[in-house]
Amino acid sequence: MKEINSLVVVGAQWGDEGKGKVIDYLAAGADTVTRFQGGNNAGHTVVYGANIFKLHHVPSGILNPGTLCLLGNGMVVNPLVLVRELEELEKRSIDTSNLFISEKAHLILTYHQALDEENEKRLGNDKIGTTGRGIGPAYADKALRRGLRAAEMVDFELFSRRLAEILPLQNLILREVYGHSGFNLEEMLDLYRPAFERLAPMVSDTGLLLARDLNSGKKVLFEGAQGALLDIDHGTYPYVTSSSTVSAAAASGTGIGMAGIRRALGVLKAYTTRVGEGPFPTEEREEAGDFLRERGNEFGTTTGRPRRCGWFDAVIARYAARINGLTGLAVTKLDVLSGLETVNLATSYRCGGSLIDELPGNLDQLVHCEPVYEVFPGWDEDISRATQKSDLPGAAISYLNALEEAVGVKVELISVGPDRAQTIVTQPSTLNSWIG
Ligand code: IMP
């Protein structure tokens, strides 16, 4: 067995940290890119030359010919959306023949999306602010042991039988609880038949494919979706997604042992954003927030919703580093901060009269926490062409160094624009073996 050469890339805030760009950059050197949780609630925008790709299920590695791309068992997959994504890629001559779906991944079906939307409506002002993609109901069905899985896409007879068993219950809930009209079995079968024909050849034992690559020393990249603070266990519950988003989930969400995970790179924006409801201590509701939203184009890839924006929060970043076992940081969108007179960085919180520098164990307390800021001088220079850290203005370097010190993990990668070329790997770096 050769030495394991794997890297997990995870979001270390509330999602939308720019993981797609970082993963795309690192995927150029990877043999395999695997997603291990979430579904099409994720939206990665990858800019490659004049092309902009919006990926929801498909790992960013798909843009590199020859890279094996896997959708792991921890994912929930919407077959109709996945087919559209494949068509979009193929239209632009991207080869998708190296993409495989775990037979154990669960399916997001029409009623999951309807249940998600109806439940949000019912919650009114208390809504979670989900992406409305049916993620929660699909994971709930998985936990209730009544989900349908990708394996069933290969055997349409079996799928039809199982759907016929489960649909009356889903319709009962939809009709009786939510007043929704429900779904017709024959119409659903007609809807899914062509999609399953397209996807069935891609259904595979992805855990085995992955183990073979890992054990033969290939470079294996795990692509996280969402972020640490949206984790079902460790996030700001209930304002979270329904899967485990931390690095350890890469093991259970793909079916490899924990020895398969060597390093974890946490992706963070140089500031903070959040979509949906829930606590966000460093949120800026006025001028600074507007500046970050406009300059950073902070509108959701999946839903188009404006993102809530605020300053970098080292308290949540330290927490994310701990729960993920981060071995390095990737700081994205540093260029967005150019033009600010001063830049704030929260190093601790004031909660109920006391100063704390760790995230409260009871995350409900976060709504009562006020950030305590260190204030840094800003910079005006356009930094989007910097190719090494020393090209950056002194003020930007000081800010980055303070961020690194406050989080306690080395910044290994800095992104100064959406293009692959606008990426700085700080030296020396453990990432060299990936990009070299
Ligand atoms: P769900 O994952 O659609 O159930 O949404 C639950 C929460 O996670 C909501 O606050 C969403 O806005 C958030 N969320 C889900 N996926 C993403 C993502 O890819 N980026 C940022 N937030 C997300």
Features:
single chain; Adenylosuccinate Synthetase, subunit A, domain 2; Adenylosuccinate Synthetase, Chain A, domain 3; 20 strands; 21% strand; alpha/beta; 436 residues; 32% helix; four-stranded mixed beta sheet; binds inosinic acid
Concise structural overview:
Helix 3 (110-123) crosses helix 4 and helix 3 packs parallel to helix 6. Helix content is 32%, strand content 21%.
Question: What would you say this structure looks like, in words?
Answer:
This protein is an alpha/beta fold. It folds into 2 domains: 313 residues, Adenylosuccinate Synthetase, subunit A, domain 3 (Adenylosuccinate Synthetase, Chain A, domain 3), CATH 3.90.170.10; 97 residues, Adenylosuccinate Synthetase, subunit A, domain 2 (Orthogonal Bundle), CATH 1.10.300. 32% of the residues lie in helices and 21% in strands. It has 13 helices and 20 strands. Strands 9-7-5-2-10-1-11-15-19-20 form a 10-stranded mixed β-sheet, sandwiched between helices. Strands 14, 16, 17 and 18 form a 4-stranded mixed β-sheet that branches. Strands 3-4 form a two-stranded antiparallel sheet. α3 runs parallel beside α6. The longest helix has 23 residues. The radius of gyration is 22 Å and the shape is globular. The mean pLDDT is 95. The chain binds inosinic acid. Inosinic acid (IMP) binds next to α4. Inosinic acid binds next to α4.
